């Protein structure tokens, strides 16, 4: 066996990052630092406001708080390491760290997917069955939906990491990505990975494609009701809201499906990095705008909160 094919289990992975061009590293660092801080502050503020305000304890806001918390954690799994690799010379990550990052990345990503479906169901029940909303979306039902989302996501992630942990890798562990992701890691393996790819296409489809189809079905049913509203103004506002939700959902699921549901032989590192930036950085930040800051009740609580702060500061 020649040196290129030897495996070295103790050798850390090297994440090549978004770019190896020194002239692009500092601008990209500033850009993604701003996006990351904005996402963390936005989602963190939404979680704090919903938990603190007695007027935001409806099922929709219970689900929204969990989505914002999942988004906050989701970006924190990958972006800090990406920022560090843009400025540091050492871009290595040990195998244990790589597997840990993959575990939480997939667990939180699937949690996001399931929570988006749960929120679409909540809006469907509120509009199609308003008289039964209190019973169909009781606290117990909401807790069960959120608990199922977290449980399914961790089972899914544990299964994938268990499969990857038993692989052997080539001596060269250079990964053309900014975090440990399935496709780049599998391409570094000298083991047979067909069984893992089969799991990605089957079990992965169940936790990604199924919620996506459910969201489309619920949004379609909501749109059918909305179009029958007598008020043209309410009609336009509701259609605009549904449109923004579908655009965000389409961006998230479209990039995820483009990366993970393709043959490994067709995977391109450059396109994979661009798509990964979209669903790891951009969509979690857009969740804050789409589901929170466009909501009249949330904006009202935030306005009252900051107004009180200004008044108390002026009085002191």
Detailed description of the structure:
The structure is a single chain. This protein has 316 residues and is an all-alpha fold. 75% of the residues lie in helices and 2% in strands. It is built from ten helices and three strands. The protein has helices at 22-52, 59-87, 95-128, 133-136, 139-165, 182-187, 194-226, 232-260, 269-293, 296-315, and strands spanning 13-15, 92-93, 174-175. A three-stranded mixed β-sheet has the order 2-1-3. α2 packs antiparallel against α9. The longest helix has 34 residues, at 95-128. The protein is globular and about 65 Å long.
Q: Give the neighbour order of strands across the main sheet.
A: 2-1-3
Shape: globular
Per DSSP, the total helix count is: 10
Detail the poorly predicted runs.
Answer: 1-8, 310-316
Overall SS class: mainly alpha
Average per-residue pLDDT, rounded, comes to 81
Compressed to H and E, one letter per element, the order equals EHHEHHHEHHHHH
Number of strands: 3
Radius of gyration, taken over Cα atoms and rounded to an integer in Å:
22 Å
């Amino acid at each position: 066996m020649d040196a290129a094919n030897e495996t070295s289990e103790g050798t850390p992975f090297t994440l090549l990052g978004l770019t190896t061009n020194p002239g692009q590293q500092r601008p990209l660092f500033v850009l993604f630092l701003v996006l990351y801080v904005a996402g963390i502050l936005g989602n963190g503020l939404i979680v704090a406001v919903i938990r603190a305000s007695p007027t935001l304890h409806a099922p929709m806001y219970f689900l929204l708080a969990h989505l914002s918390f999942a988004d906050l954690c989701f970006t924190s799994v990958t972006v800090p390491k990406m920022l560090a690799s843009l400025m540091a010379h050492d871009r290595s990550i040990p195998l244990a760290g790589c597997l840990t990052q993959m575990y939480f990345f997939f667990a939180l990503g699937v949690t996001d997917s399931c929570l988006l479906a749960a929120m679409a169901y909540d809006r469907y029940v509120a509009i199609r069955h308003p008289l039964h909303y209190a019973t169909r979306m009781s606290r117990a039902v909401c807790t069960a939906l959120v608990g199922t989302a977290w449980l399914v996501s961790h089972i899914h992630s544990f299964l994938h990491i268990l499969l990857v942990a038993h692989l052997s890798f080539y001596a060269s562990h250079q990964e053309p990505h900014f975090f440990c992701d399935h496709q780049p890691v599998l391409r570094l393996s000298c083991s047979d990975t067909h069984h893992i790819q089969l799991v990605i296409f089957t079990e992965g489809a169940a936790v990604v494609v199924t919620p996506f189809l459910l969201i489309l079905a619920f949004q379609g049913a909501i749109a059918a009701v909305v179009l029958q509203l007598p008020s043209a103004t309410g009609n336009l506002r509701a259609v605009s809201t549904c449109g923004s939700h579908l655009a965000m959902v389409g961006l998230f699921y479209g990039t995820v499906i483009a990366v993970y549901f393709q043959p490994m032989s067709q995977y391109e590192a450059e396109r994979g990095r661009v798509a990964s930036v979209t669903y790891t950085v951009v969509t979690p930040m857009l969740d804050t705008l789409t589901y929170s800051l466009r909501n009249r009740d949330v904006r009202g609580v935030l306005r009252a909160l900051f107004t009180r702060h200004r008044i108390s500061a002026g009085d002191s």
